[in-house]
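Researcher: Structure for this, please.
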Amino acid sequence: QVQLVEAGGGLVQPGGSLRLSCAASGFTFGDYGMSWYRQAPGKEREFVARISGRGKSTKYGDFVEGRFTISRDNAKNMMYLQMNNLKLEDTAVYLCNRPGTPEYWGQGTQVTVSS
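Model: Predicted structure, token format:
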């Protein structure tokens, strides 16, 4: 069955960096565009970034402002999110998403930005 497993979250100071990963299994990874979302306590789930199946096209949420980079390695069935210059407001659970019908989500990885 489809599984998405995120890793790489943690506690980081403002201005710091983290690299999140999403390990995918149970489907032909390169056939699907993939996305990152995030959800902070008390807030709605928010789109972070999307990457096409072959990795040639990307899209980011407006708040990213050039700080994050989404990428993928289809040979390894992995997706990544490099996050630089993290801000306090980036604190959230970050989730890997495979859109479609049905749609699939990972369990999320916590990112906490705090001084």
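Researcher: Any notable elements?
Model: The radius of gyration is 13 Å. The CA atoms of residues 55 and 72 lie 6 Å apart.
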